[in-house]
Amino acid sequence: MEKFYAKNEHREKIYRFQDEIEYPLLPPQKKIRLPYPWELAEKSAPRALVSSDFSCKGRKQHADRVIMLSGQEERRFSDCEGGEAHGIPEITPILLTLLNHIQETTGRHVVITSGHRCSQHQRYLYPGDLTSSSLYTVGAACDFYVEGLENSPQTVIKIIQEYYRKDKQTAHDPSYTLFHRLPLDRSQVITPWVNREICLIVHTEQEHRNPDNAHNHPYISLLVHFDRLKNRSIESELRQALPAAE
Ligand SMILES: [Zn+2]
User: Fold this and answer.
1) What pTM was computed for the model?
2) How far is the CA of 27 from the centre of ligand 1 (A)?
3) 58: CA distance to ligand 1 center in Å?
4) How far apart are CA 202 and CA 205, in angstroms?
């Protein structure tokens, strides 16, 4: 073997400078990984929500939804290009106030799953409906859940009701502090709560949900039907502005 190695030995010159020194190898040390930005974000307090967080969730790449009309006729609905493309109306201030209040009280992130919906996106979500306007299209409603409280939406409902009992403007007005229960809609499982200004609906995992809410948690719909500052009903204005059915 030695002969064999000697025969095949191939030497190569290594050029060095005269003053070169050889550094000794240090024993390996464990390096602690720096946290990723999203890991930091989880620990930090949630930032205040702003209008742009309500941006329309429509996307051009969403597949068309097709519904069959009576007979063999089908109707196709394509999604919009998203909030960045078409903008956003003024978000009703109380929506922002309430959601930020939830974040401040719980220290947890509010995740808006469906904020503003342009009329095209609204039709895409509910292709069977003839009307294309709702409280969502005018920036007066949203669907959301709270991180860490996904499975206890009733806790969030209590925080909102508590807000009306403590806020200086509403504390002495029973039309704000008292929440009535609405009769159940055919699709609902939990009776909604309503006061002069807002309506709260909890959707369970079992209920049918629109594509905006394609997650596994229960979620809350927060609808503002009365504009306190302008002293007008948003709902009745919407009904007046409805285009005639096609
Ligand atoms: Zn849109």
Assistant:
1) 0.78
2) 58
3) 5
4) 10
